[in-house]
Amino acid sequence: METIDAACIDAMAQRYRANFINSLSGYKSANLVGTCNEQQQTNLAIISSVVHIGANPPLMGMIMRPHTVTRDTLGNIKQTGLFTINALPVSHYANGHQTSARYAPEISEFDEAGFTPLWENDFAAPFVAESPLRIALRLEDILPIQANNTELVIGRIELVQVDPAVITEDGTVEIASLDLAAITGLDTYHQASPIAKMAYAKADNPPTPLQLFNADQ
Amino acid sequence: METIDAACIDAMAQRYRANFINSLSGYKSANLVGTCNEQQQTNLAIISSVVHIGANPPLMGMIMRPHTVTRDTLGNIKQTGLFTINALPVSHYANGHQTSARYAPEISEFDEAGFTPLWENDFAAPFVAESPLRIALRLEDILPIQANNTELVIGRIELVQVDPAVITEDGTVEIASLDLAAITGLDTYHQASPIAKMAYAKADNPPTPLQLFNADQ
What we know:
The structure is a homodimer of 217-residue chains.
Chain A: E1 2-5, H1 6-10, H2 14-23, E2 28-29, E3 31-36, E4 42-47, E5 51-54, E6 59-64, H3 71-80, E7 82-87, H4 93-98, H5 109-113, E8 117-118, E9 127-128, E10 133-145, E11 150-162, E12 182-184, E13 188-198, E14 209-212
Antiparallel strand pairs in A: 2-12, 3-4, 3-7, 5-6, 6-11, 7-10, 8-9, 10-11, 12-13, 13-14
């Protein structure tokens, strides 16, 4: 193991440091964030910073950079108060990556990257038809992160679309059954397979699998 | 696809809803957070909410619940201003899960779950010897999330330990080479394999792989 200290990180070239630091958070879910402005101009952006905030009330968050390629997404969310999070399937990883290109605001990444906008239940932000796990959120709060001028955008879940066959008895969505992509760093896409579902951990019991999966599945 | 709306989510039993909503963020990195109090009583907690905040300055965050099993971790971070994030290898997924059991504050999860504390470079929080990717952080900020009384804990990276052979020319850490675990929901552990590393996306180019990986590796 090599030890890389703060001085060494400071001395890295900008792009090298971006790749290095972005890698340290390991596997991240690949999600497409769908928005539109008040003129219904749609926008789609791949995000790897979606994080669970809480189940009751049902909240999800994501880290946004106001001055980067996702500024249209953030602007739309601030205008309409609505956005969708659509899990990216492995089959569409290259399309998903393409949404990170810098398109002009009047160009829709849905068209350019090959995704189909889907409008549901009068919710005024577009879903992604190709996604097997679609979530509608209403803006709950935006927390400014002063340490680097980013923002934690928090949404409250209004609607979820998923195949009911992948929801297990205990409420868990079997993510592996949906063939979703995971991202590491800024640009590397992965597939994953389950090893084990574990019982709720207790201090006086050893770790106990509820289900073991075949490593080759 | 089934549509599950807010009323349906509200009506779920508490545990069912926790499983359901925790699933929606897809693949999450499995990390062990190492801390100690001012008496050097060590604590170790598995966390699936680590998120990249920014590369310059190098910042990582995690969502903490002040009134749950991770309250010792949060208390220690507030006391000492220091913590470590240690990526969980697939080989130790069951041990990692065991750290989520509710142990008394004077019991160290290092001992109970079978991990070895490692002290490095005078940094006053313990690393995990079994982890192939260890990060030391100094508390930068704690942002209260009023929507559900959780907190976004932000740390500034002071030190990283990793095998230099897995750092590529462009600074990326090849996470797949480290055999790290990913989590879905509250209790399911996964392994992952890379599909493709993509070139920086450009509006006037189609998506371009820089490297394609063997699906069976």
